[in-house]
Amino acid sequence: MTDLNFDLERLKEGYDYIAGIDEVGRGCLFGDVVAACVIMPLDKAIEGVTDSKKLSPKKRGLLEAAIKERAVFYAYANESPEVIDAVNIKQATRRAMKAAAEKAMDRFPDKDILFLVDAETMDLDCHQSAIIHGDDLSYTIACASILAKEYRDRLCIQWGEAYPGYGIEKHKGYGTKQHREAIRALGPSAGHRMSFLTKILNK
Q1: How far apart are the C-alpha atoms of 83 and 27, rounded to whole Å?
Q2: Does pTM top 0.85 for this prediction?
Q3: Confidence of residue 203 (pLDDT cuts 50, 70, 90)
């Protein structure tokens, strides 16, 4: 479990709020990259919150509900495969994170917010800190990682229906053997990131 200490130490620096930002879908072959921004009360941690990759789907779903219930604020932002192909995945990820952070700034224009960002820097005039292994160190980033993962997983179910045959609802767009074979058999769909498929399509 990720505790509150890291976030509380930063809050003592005089900020009104600590906001956590994390992304999911960076390494996928298909679909949007998604960022979540969340501001949590730091009086008491929700039991079991940690990096979303360490949680079972069932546990993650329960924690998502608890986070949404307690959150002061949360928001999401996506960047599409077209944007990812145009500007590269790193820049698209940073754009999604920036858009999610801007929603918090719009919601609380008079509050001094420190954005703790998992291993990235946003092109945004705000107080921010890039935290390596942020979803292990920061409770707020861990909460953001859970929200982003659950939100994107629901999108994957919709994408699986819109683009049948690729199994998006199962592997969530990652480059599994099943997914790579489906791309070779069916060709890429409109939801695929063409810049990620060069090696697969050349085989």
Answers
A1: 15
A2: yes
A3: confident
